[in-house]
Specification:
single chain, alpha/beta, Macrophage Migration Inhibitory Factor, four-stranded mixed sheet, 21% strand, elongated
Amino acid sequence: MPHLQFDINKKLNSKDKNKFCKYVRDSFGKIMKTGTDHVAISLRELKKDALSLGRAKDNEYVCFMNLDVRVGRSVKQRRELVKCYVKAVNQFFSVNKENQYITFTLHNGRDFNLYEKSLENWIKDDDPLNKK
């Protein structure tokens, strides 16, 4: 169950947040070769001075992403996801690409839990909540 966290120092409108979350979820499924029912997204709006990135100028918006995912994804997949999400944050919320910072935390499947079960380790094209 990936937990995709976005911290941004900007007030956002509900319509854009909903569209963004759908885009994030759908893109994750496509790039990471998995279903999307188990994808968790946190989008936190913080005050302007609550985030700081060394290369950002004063009063510029920034976005930090912490992407908790299951082990097994390739560097190529992770880089594709980074580029996809940086472009999306820029397009949806007008945060400069240079003012975004992304970290991945890789977990074994059993680290991710829903009410009904723990997830298994990732395999290509899995859909952990819709196993036959």
